[in-house]
Amino acid sequence: MNHAYEISHLLAGVMLVTSFALLYQQRVAAVLNTFAAQSIALALAVAWAAWSQDRPDLFITALIALTLKGIVIPVALHRTVARLGIHREVEKVVGVGVALMVGLALTGLAQALLFKVTHGTASHAREELALALSIILMGFLMMIVRRNAVTQIVGFMSMENGLILAATGARGMPLVVEVSVAFSVLIALFVFAVFVFRIRERFDTIDIEALDRMRGDRR
Amino acid sequence: MIHAYQVVVVAPYVAALVLLVIPGYRLGAITNVVASALTFAAGLWLVVSERVVSDYAIVDEFNIVFIAINTLVGFTTALFSASYIGHEIETGRLTPTLLRFYHAMFQAMMGSMNLALIANNIGLMWVGLELATLITVVMVGLYRTPQAIEAAWKYFILASVGISLAFFGTILIYLAGQPALGEGVPAMTWNLLQAAASRMDPAILDLAFIFLLIGYGTKVGLAPLHAWLPDAHAEGPTPISAVLSGLLLNVALYALLRFKMVVAGQPAALDPGPIMIVMGLVSLIFAAFMLYQRRDIKRLFAYSSIEHMGLMVFAFGMGGPLANFAGLLHMTMHSLTKSGIFFAVGHIAQAKGSQRIADIKGLSVTHPRLAVAFALAVFAISGLPPFGVFTSEFLILTTTFAREPWLALLPAFGLLIGFGALLMRLQDTIFGEPVGPAHRVDASSVPLVLHLLLVLTAGIYLPPVLVAWFQRAAELLG
Prior knowledge:
The complex is a heterodimer.
Chain A: H1 3-24, H2 28-52, H3 57-84, H4 96-117, H5 123-145, H6 149-169, H7 175-203, H8 208-212
Helix pairs in contact in A: 1-2, 1-5, 1-6, 2-3, 2-6, 3-6, 3-7, 4-5, 5-6, 6-7
Chain B: H1 4-21, H2 25-48, E1 52-53, E2 58-59, H3 61-90, H4 96-118, H5 122-140, H6 146-181, H7 190-195, H8 202-220, H9 228-235, H10 238-264, H11 272-290, H12 297-318, H13 320-352, H14 363-366, H15 368-381, H16 388-403, H17 409-430, H18 446-460, H19 464-477
Antiparallel strand pairs in B: 1-2
Helix pairs in contact in B: 1-2, 1-4, 2-3, 2-4, 3-4, 3-10, 3-13, 3-19, 4-5, 4-10, 5-6, 5-10, 6-8, 6-9, 8-10, 9-10, 9-12, 10-12, 10-13, 11-12, 11-17, 12-13, 12-17, 13-15, 13-16, 13-18, 13-19, 15-17, 15-18, 16-18
């Protein structure tokens, strides 16, 4: 194993650490900053893969990750939070301790699962994939244990970060796929933004619990 | 030379752009119908023209069935929508601007579904399904009521999670194909993946299929991943409910079946059949019981869709030429009948100004013709002869009985439970003292009658051409 893989593992590891950090942040602004940090780590990881695997097309993916998810989306969400005067505290379903323990268990599960399954694949790819799956599951967890719409968006975006990392880890995945993934994430964000505004407009809060009271079948 | 498959994908997107700049909603509705008719014509042309396999597009005996249904129901729904949606402006539920947006989104959604069906690349197919999903999320929230926003948000979160897991499964398929096909585009191409299936890594294939089953299974509406489906059907505009049930669920099922074909090509990998049988049966029986507690008519038929998707997944899980044939036939019949039912429900909701079953009593007194059409449609979906749904359900049950007699009891039980619930609800709505307002219905009944006639014809006489065509598709499914 040479240093190219060590660096890519280091960057993927940084992303995983930020996934854990997302779970214990107390303030919405801090969640957004942590997410930006994760996206920048993703951009670096993809750029490193582009350089070390000699695949210049991946630089485009890295650039998209850096500008969109590292800068534009966090800034836009910061402004949304400020403009809507949303609670600055993160609203939790379960406590930080429990969430972190579950996160740890999910990470262990992802590693165990992928190492067991991917015998034949090159070792660097399976390690990268295992880290990516951990990040995906952590994003999933974040969507479950946070009630606020903005923090759910961040959970979703963090999941997408894991997906892009996985796609980069799988060598030679065609560029068209990555570009269109980035594109659809952009649309997803647009949809999210529209909904945050509409939810706010109708409910005076973006706490998802207010939505649960509107279940159609209870009329 | 333009090929029909390009028209099927590109025409709706072009129409979507055009519709964005057309100001009047009447003109928009007409353009929507014309564009859908054009796409349908291209779909028909595709059926009779040569099959295609290129780097990014595939048209074979299997997906052509889906494309034909998709373009046909897209066209009839556009027809229905054109006569229906004006009413929403009169009642103030929609503004002209929103309606312009609605028409553009309708076409974009049709284009995305066709893209997912025609793509020869597993990544491109994923993109098509993701786009179609996001567009329907926006459509479900179109009315902007608190209920609509709740439904759209739930749909969005669950569908996003599902589609993300499906993408991870897609990456795993790519990895599993790499040893046999090398890096790059070939390891993401349907026909090559299928041909090379026996040389793919079985362990990764297993894991990939689980992710794909959970991911796309969420979109199919399989229990216990179905939570988004009833809300999304109930709160969106009725034409969208028709397209959701009739088409989008099929597209997700198509994705699942394609992956099943790949996984089944590797004997060392897990057998997708039993998993699909179990998930299908759970959905079927669960949804059949849930039918009894429904108070909202669109929600009722949404659960009925879960029931029927479960039956299809069960049939495809059984596999073999006959069960696959029955599954495909059932899918076709369900698409036609269920979208027809939603057209009828749209009429009823306009006539009564409500979707609550308690408010829809005595339809036979106030709107006799609508009551008859609705009753026929409900008979059709609950599997009474001579409608086509009976034929396909009968085929599924008999082929199961021939192979696994005891197993056939479960789907039969689920269907009977569902049958009882639907007839009970039908009785509630048709008979009794009329309550509430009784408005005139402006929406056209042509699409509903057309769908009913098609389902009836299929139930009485299936043309040999059609049978041969479905048989070829069923053989491809293995």
